[in-house]
Specification:
By secondary structure, the protein is α+β, with helices and mostly antiparallel strands. It has one helix and three strands; from the N terminus they run βαββ. It has one domain. The N and C termini lie close together (10 Å).
Length: 62
């Protein structure tokens, strides 16, 4: 069974993204995508969502 993990980043910096990617990859999650939420008044993202997946055998919990 494919299981998903979504991590919300309210502070979008190189360091915060790197920390999330390294932390969850080390826990066995596979990076899938990074989605940015933009503000109309700024070129900088207001927040981001890091998406991870991993396959869990049927009957086991993520």
């Amino acid at each position: 069974m494919l299981t998903y993990k979504v991590i919300e980043l309210t502070t979008v910096t190189e360091d915060s993204i790197e920390e999330v990617l390294n932390t969850w990859s080390a826990k066995g999650w596979d990076f899938d995508a990074l989605q940015f939420a933009m503000r109309e008044s700024s070129k900088r993202p207001a927040m981001a969502f890091a998406l991870f997946t991993r396959t869990v055998p049927d009957g086991e919990q993520a």
